Amino acid sequence: MEGIVISIDPVIVHVGPFALRWYSLFFALAVAAGVWLGRREAHRKGLPVEQIEALALWSIFGGLIGARIFHVIDSWEVYAAHPQRLLNVWEGGLAVYGGLIGGVLTGLVYAVRHKLPIWKVADAAAPGMLLGQAVGRLACIPNGDAFGAPTTVPWAFIYTNPQALVPRDLLNVPTHPYAVYELLFNLLLLGLLWPLRRVFKTDGVLFLTYVATQMAGRFVLTFYRAEQIALWGLQQAQVVALIVLPVVLILLVWRLQPGQGGKGQLAEA
Question: Which of 11, 81, 99, 170 has most Cβ atoms within 10 angstroms of its Cβ?
Answer without folding.
Answer: 99
